[in-house]
Amino acid sequence: MSQISRLKYRISVSGTSADELFTGYYDHYHAYLHDTQADTLLYHDSLEFWMEHIRPWVRNPYLQDPTLFVKNPFFRDHIYLRQDEFENYMVAPWHEPFSEIFLGL
Q1: At what angle do helices 40-49 and 26-36 cross, to 10 degrees?
Q2: Which residue, 30, 55, 53, is CA-closest to 43?
Q3: Is 6 a member of any domain?
Q4: Which of 2, 7, 10, 76 is 20 to 30 Å from 52 at the Cα level?
C-alpha cells in the first residue's frame, strides 16, 4: 500500500473486500437473525431490512431464504455450493470436505 501511495495511484484493485463486493457474507446475517429471533421487534425489523436491501443481491439459492438458520442452525450446504462444478476448472485435482466442531448454542 505504501508503494501504491508513493506512485500516486488513486485506485488499486487488490482483492481486499472482494467477498463483500461479489458475494458477501450473507450467512453472517442469517446467523444474526437466528440470534435475534427472541427479540420480536429487532428480528422483524432486521428481517424486513434484509428483504428490502440485501435479498435482491443474493445469488446463492440457499441464502436467499433469510430464515434458513432460524429453521436449521446447523445448515451448511451453502458453503461449497457447486463445488463439483468448480473442481473442473482447477489445474490440479482439488476437493476440500467441510467440517466443523459444534460447541453448543
Answers
A1: 160
A2: 30
A3: no
A4: 76
Report yes or no on 68 lying in a domain. Answer: yes
Answer whether residue 17 is part of any domain: no
Residue 90 in domain: yes
C-alpha 73/C-alpha 39 separation (Å) is 17
| Alpha-carbon span 100 to 92, nearest angstrom | 25
Distance (Å) of CA 64 to CA 27, 50, 89: 10, 10, 26
Percent of the chain with pLDDT over 70: 86
pLDDT exceeds cutoff 80 at 52: yes
User: Three-state SS for 41?
Assistant: helix
Cell numbers at 88, concatenated: 473442473
**Residues 32, 58, 77, 24: is their CA dihedral positive or negative?**
negative
Average pLDDT, the chain: 83
- Note every long-range contact of 53-60, with CB atoms under 8 Å and residues 24 or more positions apart, other chains counting: 54/24, 54/26, 54/29, 57/24, 58/24, 58/26, 59/23, 60/23, 60/26
